[in-house]
Each structure stands twice: as structure tokens, then as C-alpha cells.
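From the methods appendix. Each design record in this collection lists the discretized structure first, followed by the designed amino acid sequence. Records were kept in a plain field format so they could be parsed without special tools. The example shown here is representative of the layout used throughout.

RECORD:
C-ALPHA CELLS (332 positions):
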């Protein structure tokens, strides 16, 4: 089936561009309470599921063994901007496990935050793996491996103990079997498994409510939610959507972006999980659609309502600061 238009981009009162995609909203009973498009389609969730991938770090006892702080747990769920505090926190996590940044296998790129990247260049420094947006997740993988007495070398491979534990957690949360035939390689080199959109929404319902989870996993999910709510900067960074949203709403929303137009979120108070995918991979459309879904399903008022409205209908300006258009969700 062709997915419907879910976001429109206007200019001068006319629709200039359209984004198609799908969204599923699932309640605590597993019922789909709202959907658009083909929600049974299997997609690569990419970084949207980092919180699910961090569950073994907590429930195994590794986080307690190394005394990981809430800020460090939030970073383990992040796609951070490579700002100084992000890199420093990744290094601190590794040090607690007796390791250094040389063991990270996520690759190297310049910080996503322009100011941080300019700062490195100005000081004549080159980026390291600590600046990779996935370094917090990878530091968590290293901590998990070391806590189990397993050599972390090669931890990005699908047959490593860390990735086997991560896959089991994903399968349990989503309620599906993840096929090796549908396995890809993520940008940070770990496996990524094609998963139905509705199954991802179901996983985030469980993450947000703990319903249907054994005690240790429910406690781990709650601990990660609380860590992210307390440290939203760690999950993304200055000016970015996830940080702005969770700074506004705190524990009422747990959200995480993924590459190629994917977003997942939990609304714990409402017992809802959300997953969406924009067909063209545009993150701008995914952000608008998620913000519109939050407007629909989460009662808001005051500054929270105004802040989410800005995210749901961002203004586009030209280089002179003149408003030229807006984005808006369709069908919500």
C-alpha cells in the first residue's frame, strides 16, 4: 500500500512539499488506538531504540557494578551532539570499566554540534570516537561486556555476547522474532534489525509503563526513563528536538529519534507507545509528526502547550530571517 501524506511543507500559502509515512500508537493492552499508513511494514529502527538496547546494561547489574550515574545512563540512550560534556561523560563511563576510548568501535566523526566542531578545529584538535553521536551507547556496551567478564573486542558483531543480549531484549520488548535475514549494519557498526512499526510502538508502551515486563526489566525501564527525564541534554544536545521536548515535558514523554525519518516515544501517563517512519527519511517530518501526536494524546497547557506547538508547526525562515513557510502534520 502507498503510505499517506503525513506532513506538508508550505510556502506563500501553498503546499510546496509533501512527506509520506506511517505511524502507530499502541496502548497498554497492546491495542492499536491510532494509525496511519502501513504499520505492519518492517523498518530499520536505527537509533530510535537505544533505550531498548540499554536495558541489558541496567538489568544485568553492570550499571550498579560500575556506579553509572543517571547522566551516564541517559547518555547510553543517546544520539548526542558531541558537545564537551557528552564526550567527557562517555570517557568517564569507560574509565569506570577500566577502559579508554581506544576500545570504542563506533567510528569517528566531527561533533554534530557546530560550535563543538568549531571549537575542536580552533584548538587544532581532531575528533575522536568520543565525539561520535553513539559513543554513549557504545560505552554502555563496553561496560556490559566487561561486567560479564567478556572481552569487549568485536562487541559490534552480531555474535558477540553484548549484541546477543541486545537482540533478546529487543525481541522480548517488541514481541517479535528478529530475523538474521533482515539484519543490516547501523551507522555505528552494530546490527540493526528490520522490525514492524506497530511492534516498535508496542515495545515503547512496555518501556513507558512496565506492564507485562518481569520485575528486573520493569525496574530497568523505569530507571532509564527517569535518567533521561532528569538529563535531557545528554540524549541529544543544544537546540535539538529530543532535548527540547523532554526539557519541556520531563517524565511525561520519553522520545528518541532515529536516522532515516524514524521516531519512537512513550507517554507513560497515558500508557501509550508511538512509532513512526517517514518514507523519504526526512527527520524534519518525523519531528513534526511526533510533536503533533503528542498534542493529540497528551493533555498540555501553558508553556508546555506552546513549546510543543512550536515543534509541531516549525517556522521556516530565509537567510534574512523572513518567515517563508511552515511545516504541519496531516491526518492527526
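DESIGN:
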Amino acid at each position: 500500500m502507498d503510505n499517506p501524506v503525513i506532513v506538508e511543507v508550505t510556502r506563500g500559502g501553498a503546499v510546496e512539499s509533501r512527506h509520506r509515512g506511517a505511524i502507530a500508537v499502541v496502548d497498554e493492552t497492546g491495542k492499536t488506538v491510532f494509525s496511519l499508513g502501513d504499520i505492519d511494514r518492517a523498518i530499520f529502527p536505527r537509533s530510535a531504540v537505544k533505550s531498548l538496547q540499554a536495558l541489558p546494561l541496567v538489568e544485568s547489574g553492570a550499571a550498579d557494578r560500575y556506579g553509572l550515574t543517571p547522566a551516564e545512563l541517559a547518555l547510553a540512550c543517546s544520539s548526542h551532539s558531541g558537545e564537551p560534556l557528552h564526550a567527557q561523560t562517555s570517557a568517564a563511563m569507560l574509565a569506570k570499566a577500566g577502559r579508554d576510548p581506544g576500545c570504542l568501535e563506533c567510528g569517528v566523526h566531527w561533533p554534530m554540534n557546530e560550535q563543538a566542531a568549531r571549537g575542536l578545529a580552533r584548538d587544532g584538535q581532531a575528533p575522536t570516537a568520543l565525539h561520535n553521536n553513539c559513543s554513549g551507547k557504545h560505552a554502555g556496551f563496553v561496560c556490559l561486556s566487561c561486567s560479564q567478564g567478556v572481552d569487549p573486542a568485536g562487541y559490534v558483531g552480531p555474535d558477540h555476547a553484548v549484541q546477543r543480549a541486545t537482540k533478546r531484549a529487543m525481541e522480548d520488548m517488541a514481541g517479535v522474532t528478529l530475523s538474521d535475514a533482515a539484519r543490516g549494519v547501523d551507522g555505528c557498526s552494530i546490527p540493526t534489525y528490520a522490525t514492524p512499526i506497530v511492534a516498535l510502538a508496542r515495545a515503547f508502551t512496555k518501556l513507558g509503563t512496565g506492564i507485562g515486563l518481569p520485575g528486573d526489566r520493569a525496574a530497568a525501564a523505569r530507571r532509564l526513563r527517569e535518567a533521561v527525564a532528569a538529563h535531557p541534554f545528554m540524549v541529544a544536545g543544544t537546540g535539538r528536538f529530543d532535548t527540547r521536548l523532554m526539557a519541556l515535558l520531563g517524565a511525561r514523554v520519553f522520545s528518541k529519534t532515529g536516522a532515516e525519518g524514524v521516531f519512537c516515544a512513550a507517554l507513560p501517563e497515558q500508557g501509550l507507545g508511538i512509532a513512526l517512519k517517514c518514507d523519504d527519511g526526512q527527520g524534519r517530518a518525523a519531528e513534526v509528526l511526533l510533536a503533533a501526536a503528542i498534542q493529540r494524546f497528551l493533555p498540555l497547557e501553558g508553556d508546555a502547550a506552546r513549546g510543543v506547538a512550536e515543534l509541531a508547526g516549525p517556522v521556516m525562515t530565509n537567510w534574512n530571517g523572513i518567515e517563508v513557510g511552515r511545516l504541519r502534520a496531516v491526518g492527526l
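APPENDIX NOTE: The longest helix spans residues 215-230.
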